Amino acid sequence: MSGRTDAAALRAFSVSLCRAAGLSADDAALLTDSIVFAECRGVTSHGLLRLPQYIARLRSGATARNVPMPFTMECGGTARLDAQNGLGQLAGRKAADKAEELAGKYGVSFVAVANSNHFGTGAWYAIPAARRGFFAFNLSSAASAMAPHGAAQPLLGTDPLGLALPRGEGKAPLALDMALSTVARGKIRYAALSGTPIPETWGLDAHGAPTTDASAVLNGGTLLPAGGAKGSGLAIFIELLCAVLTGSGALGGTGLLSDLSRPAGTGHIFGCVDIKRFLPLETFERLCEESLSRITALAPAQPGGEILLPGEPEERRAAESAANGVPVAAALRETLNALAEELGCAERL
Amino acid sequence: MSGRTDAAALRAFSVSLCRAAGLSADDAALLTDSIVFAECRGVTSHGLLRLPQYIARLRSGATARNVPMPFTMECGGTARLDAQNGLGQLAGRKAADKAEELAGKYGVSFVAVANSNHFGTGAWYAIPAARRGFFAFNLSSAASAMAPHGAAQPLLGTDPLGLALPRGEGKAPLALDMALSTVARGKIRYAALSGTPIPETWGLDAHGAPTTDASAVLNGGTLLPAGGAKGSGLAIFIELLCAVLTGSGALGGTGLLSDLSRPAGTGHIFGCVDIKRFLPLETFERLCEESLSRITALAPAQPGGEILLPGEPEERRAAESAANGVPVAAALRETLNALAEELGCAERL
Fold it and tell me: Which of A98, B5, B41, B102 sees the fewest Cβ atoms within 10 Å?
């Protein structure tokens, strides 16, 4: 059952399940595009793993289907979209397109999305805008998972931050797509399974004490912000912008599956800057390449090591997925096939 | 010689030295305001310590005096200022004011500053804008000091990032003013002096290897980014925006004193978002306080510890400085008094 699957087959499978969960053809294709984009890039945390979660929320009504998502404000470079508790990817795509349109007119934009849900991988929004000549950024609030600096308990989300800039010479954009926790929970789960000690900067135990025991973090403990007070401070700002400024809610949202009885109340920010206002795009790209090539030419810290720029590991994985198919773990394949059967879909992975 | 000095006396002293170094009365007052603001807040790394460095650059001509600093582009929410190698604080104040003006018109702004110098503490720009109802942000390139993730040698600047949001109930704005290195070089110097081992995340030795020996970092080694690949990725984006997009230069600028024969080529970005476009300012402030009070009400990680929000330690120190005077270390006092004598100024600290 394990092995590699062609991206087109993953796409057809995902669309079929999304349609069975009540999404329109367009919405199913858009959600699928975000999921398969992430999976092909090796960002498995935002790939097919999420499909059962999104579908569970759609079927329970915790996430709404086929809502119009109107812009409730548009003025100069700013706008606000009410996602009406629909899928984050649908709201996000609409808001990211608006951010690009407004930056085309005003040079810079800042678009708030209220009452949304998990929006997937930020690179899915930022990279296409960068390809069209924009500096693109996005932020999202997220479920409570991380202790603020100095606290023993979680409250902040891991709050993803997505950035992209165009590169010249036909290269894929420079893309940073990061959460503000020191590491993803998945890495701590893996350490717990393999019995490997973890650095004390990864999390606290249930008593709020630093620990090298991964299972102590998972059993009632909390993740810690990257860079201590720095990541904590950034996450506080991201939460206040995404949850409060958008009008979505407050700190400490719920997870995708932790409460199917109420909306997630997630908020996002999307923005773009039109590079050609400042200098010709070709000049910008050429000067960036000069600077970036100085980075990659540095002596590596590990003998024989390679210095990779933000987004390069994902681009390599995407090329590899395109050439050889996308690896899908056996357990995930089984989960997805069982869900397909439950939904009455004929497709299997 | 050690002890506390009234902020007004620090101000008069600094203005006198700046005037003797050839600055106009207005420019001397503005540079002094940034320096004394930082010193009063306990941000000594951007306080009086910098005055001899700024003055050395002014006297050598490495930083220009009395240049007009024109806006070379203004279009929608974007603008570009050419600092003409003048002081970063003068360029920064002008650009931050423009960012606020444009955000008032277009809701959001993004102002680039080219050909500038060290701009001091970012909170000095962001906090006043937040008091007037804006989300304010600023970024700067900086001298090469930090190894990109995976590299053994420094190239990235520590690249400061300043953010501020207004708070209700007469409270000072929430303010994050951070560099992207794990810690400031000053902390590593202190560890070297006191013989204390440092965490391996602070820096690399001259061979690019992680070390707990502070002096090994200082002697030909390099600082490391906060949060590993995350801080490194953010610094790469900040450098490309501040150095390249502004038209200032490239990665890896020079330090304040490392080369008095040429311009620093520092660039900055200033931006604002007008909060009241999204919701009434009072509503935003009230909802922020609700969220922030949930953070400070969490159980502390240290028994009896307190959870401080971004900017709170600095605000407390500023209140303490206002009440009891600003502590100035004896060695710094001597350096400054010697400089005053050299410049023919009558004032002494």
Answer: B5
Question: B279 and A241 in contact by Cβ < 8 A?
Answer: no
Closest Cα in chain B, distance from residue A62 (Å):
24
CB contact under 8 A, B244 and A288: yes
- Give SS3 for A265: coil
Is A277's Cβ below 8 Å from some Cβ in B? yes
A265 touches chain B (CB under 8 A): no
What are the residue ranges in chain B where pLDDT is below 70? 1-2
Give dist(CA B345, CA B17) in Å, integer: 7
Judged by a CB distance cut-off of 8 A, whether residue B61 touches chain A is: no
CB-based contact B182:B225 (threshold 8 Å): yes
Residues of A in Cβ contact (< 8 Å) with B77: 76-77, 106-108
Q: Using alpha carbons, list the distances in angstroms from residue B201 to B160, B182, B213, B302.
A: 19, 7, 11, 22
Give the β-pairing of A110-116 and A78-82: parallel
Q: What is the pLDDT of residues A203-251, one digit of tens each?
A: 999 999 999 999 999 999 999 999 999 999 999 999 999 999 999 988 8
Sequence-separated contacts (24+) of B33-36 with Cβ below 8 Å: B33/B124, B34/B89, B34/B120, B34/B121, B34/B124, B35/B120, B36/B7, B36/B10, B36/B11, B36/B326
What secondary structure does DSSP assign to A275-306, as a single string? Answer: GGGTS-HHHHHHHHHHHHHHHHTSPBSSTT--
Low-confidence residues of chain A: pLDDT under 50: 1
How far B300 CA sits from the closest chain A CA (Å)?
A: 4
Q: Which residue has the tokens 């973890």?
A: A198
Tokens representing residue A250 in the block: 């407050």
The reported pLDDT for the residue numbered A186 is 82
Q: Is the CB of residue B297 less than 8 Å away from at least one CB of chain A?
A: no
The H or E element containing residue B349 is: none
Look at the alpha carbons of B289, A227, A99, B83 in this order and tell me if their dihedral is positive or negative: positive
Burial profile B208-235: b = 16 or more Cβ within 10 angstroms, e = fewer: bebbebbbbbbeebbbbbbbbbbbbbbb
Q: Which of A20, A92, A25 is nearest to A58 (CA)?
A: A20
Among chain A residues, CA nearest to B290: A250
Tell me whether B123 touches chain A (CB under 8 Å): no
Q: Is B196 exposed, middle or buried (0-12, 13-18, 19+ CB in 10 A)?
A: exposed
Among A23, A115, A21, A15, smallest CA distance to A66 is for: A23
Q: Which residues pair with B326 in a beta bridge?
A: B5
Report pLDDT digits (tens) over A333-347: 999 999 999 999 999
The Cα B27–Cα B97 span in angstroms is: 15
- Cβ-based contacts under 8 A for chains A and B: 247
- Does this model's pTM top 0.80? My answer is yes
- Distance of alpha carbon B256 from the chain centroid: 13
**What pLDDT was estimated at residue A100?**
98
With residue A322 as reference, give the H or E element that holds it.
Answer: helix A312-324
Residues of B with Cβ-Cβ distance to A209 under 8 angstroms: 301
- Count Cα atoms within 13 angstroms, Cβ side, for A47: 23
Contact B155 A271 (CB under 8 A): no
CA distance A333 to chain B (A): 31
Interchain CB distance below 8 Å, A294 and B76? no
* Chain A residues with beta carbon closer than 8 angstroms to that of B275: 245
Q: Tokens in use for B151?
A: 């590299």
